[in-house]
Design brief:
It comes from Labedaea rhizosphaerae. The protein has about 150 residues and is mostly helical. The chain is built from five helices and three strands.
Length: about 150
């Protein structure tokens, strides 16, 4: 038969396990609530002329595109494509900010939600910035034709 000390240890252990399980359930429910909130995020942006409106999800996927009839007259196809991409980028910026606000409650206090969403949360700026483009040196290049033509 277990002694009083053994029963007390078992009771303390059980209370600790119950506390951990309760905390896990709270965290899991909070995470589920954040996922539900992220699923509802839809942000729109419109170009300065009001001809193009793009709506994106929290992940930046285009979920809506509205083009005024005049957009086809104002823009050539390549210009229209560039404008759509530009407006989609503006909407994505808004959606990422909204997603960051939704994530804040479940992140540690010193976390940057935007960096987390960009995938750079644990990187230094020099680790994720692209290296500068190198200019092509013309010093070693011969401008004289070396092949003979028949």
């Amino acid at each position: 038969m277990p002694g009083i000390a053994e029963v007390a240890v078992a009771t303390d252990h059980r209370a600790g396990v119950d506390g951990l399980l309760a905390e896990y359930r709270r965290s899991r429910e909070q995470l589920a609530a954040v996922h539900r909130e992220l699923a509802t995020i839809a942000e729109s942006a419109t170009d300065a002329d009001g001809l193009i409106t793009v709506t994106v999800s929290a992940r930046g996927s285009i979920i809506g595109l509205q083009l005024a009839e005049a957009a086809y007259r104002v823009y050539r196809p390549d210009q229209l494509a560039r404008q759509i991409v530009l407006v989609a980028g503006m909407a994505t910026t808004k959606a990422v900010r909204a997603a960051g606000r939704a994530l804040e409650p479940v992140l540690p206090a010193d976390s940057d939600p935007d960096a987390l969403l960009r995938g750079t949360a644990d990187l230094r700026p020099d680790e994720y910035k692209p290296p500068p483009e190198e200019e092509e040196s013309m010093e070693e290049r011969s401008w004289l034709q070396t092949e003979r033509r028949p």
